[in-house]
Amino acid sequence: MTADKDTDDEPLLFEQDQAATSWPIPRLFQEYGAEYKPLIAVALGASLLSPVVSLLPTYLLKVVIDSVFLQTTPFHVPFVPASWMPTQPWPQLLVLVGLIVVAAVTSTGLGWISGWAWGRFAQTVQHIVRTDAYEKIQQLGIAFFDDQQTGQILSILNDDVNELNRLLERFLDELLRIGARFIGIAAFLFYLHWQLAIIALLPVPVLAVMSRWFISRIRPMYDDVRQRVGVLNARIENSLSGIRVVKAYTAESFEANRVDDASKQLLDTRWDVITTRISFFPAMNVVNWLSFGVLVIVGGLWILNGPPLFFTEPLSVGTLVAFLTYNRQFTSPLIQVGHLIDLYHDARASVIRIFALKDYDIEIKDQENALSLVDIDGNVTYEDVTFRYDSDEEPAIEGISFEVEPGAFVGLVGPTGSGKTTLTKLLPRFYDPDEGAIRLDGHDLSSIALTDLRSAIGYVSQEPFLFSGTVSENIAYSTPDVSRAEIEQAARMGGAHEFITALADGYETEVGERGVKLSGGQRQRIAIARAIITDPDLLILDEATSHVDNETEVLIQTALREFSADRTTFAIAHRLSTVRNADTILVLDDGEIVEQGTHEELLERDGLYSNLWKVQVGELEELPDTFLEQTVDADAPNFSR
Ligand code: ADP
Ligand code: MG
Question: Which of 84, 103, 622, 631 is the most exposed place for a label (fewest CB within 10 A)?
Fold first, then answer.
């Protein structure tokens, strides 16, 4: 029903390429973190120390209770010589409170430092990854963009790069904090009372098993959520970019239903996640409070009746209080480990996609000693050129051979889909031929520096693209320094000056997104001016005047004749009259050159060209039977690429 193909189930290329990077996250740190070693060192140190220092107040509390309040154990603070310490309870209390304040302030300060350092690191790396990825995308060949949906590329640059934030800023930070706190607590517990520590740590394996179970349940749900978000985005993107088609075919409710469906499925999977999560945390909490209760009872009996069973060491009130406080502190990190593992998996998937893009082969690039072209004559030869868009498909053009003298005007005609556009796209190396060679002034195209080659070519594509911005910005797109006079001159040659001056703001008129505020013919003329202003050595016009009326076309042709006189020009003709005066006309059919010659020569041959001509001038109602299997309709609106 909609014109856009349904892409929901198409696998992302970036997911198929996962094998490329087996250790994506270490690789990320290695490639992007190496420069920031000092920053990472500060961040690591602060993340490790801050939780350990925050454990000190609880220990000091134990000293307060046992040595100051109850005075059952001698006053002693580790690492501080006894001679420095006061002997009276009141000053002792003050010293301990002072130490508690110092520990709290230090731990808070360290927390600030780690937040600052990780945040700085995360933002900087994201910036580099983002710009790297964008640069890479710019270098990729057109074939890449034929295969990938814009939405998917965007989601790497946005979602995946943003996903790094949580990884870089929080993952290591929290992992280290949790680890340091957990080990720190265990160490304090054993230091305080190793026998009770064994009992206090009993719930740890239980919680660990529960966490594992939770993660194994929730992870596939998260995968599901991610997938459904992708589907939803793809649907929205697809129908928005085709909004004009949607409206023309009154498919609004169809599209709305599809989005509704996708959104509903997302709701369902998210709801599964939530119900699982909210039942898990209370379960963890119950275990946690149970262990707290057991500790109170066992500890209480221990204090009241002495060591139970085979235990030997007496227990003080302060130690029990410290144990109970630590008990509350070490179960919550275990719960967070679950979150961290999730975060890791999310980020891993993103990093894999980022590296898949980074590792993507740039097929079309400069050879090592690429020639730089200074003076171009414009001699072009195609030698037995065959090209397929997909290796397993029929060739789009096959066995194409011809030679063009410098400055010649070459007309290309043939039915829709016969390969005209494809043939010209090989010249700026949008694609490389699979077989055969193309030469410019005797040099194989692949030996020429790509920027030199492309800047020598003025290319007006079949569906010219305008950027949102003004008319003059669009004309001067690749040459921002040109003067207004040059812009106007180029516009005159492209037959655009008249209509531009008639626009409300003239050359400063905003053209809208993709140039929607202009007609097809106006867009084409601006595109011609954009090619002219670069003063190219070769000019390719792909049905460049197909949306322009006959009269205007004649005007443009006259102007272009002078301009193209000393430039090799390829003109794909929409109307055969466009190429009537060409030095040579190549007639394509089904990817092959079937006729070649001047207009007169071709008419005389009485082949495909002469029949096309007769149809266009009205001598023939339709093509004779021999040509009927071909869709020859040069004047029909052209829906080919
Ligand atoms: P023409 O310009 O003569 O109408 P094209 O060169 O655009 O013809 O197309 C030639 C053939 O190549 C057609 O069969 C078309 O479907 C196919 N084709 C064109 N562009 C692509 C592409 N980007 N990917 C795959 N096939 C393509
Ligand atoms: Mg075409």
Answer: 84
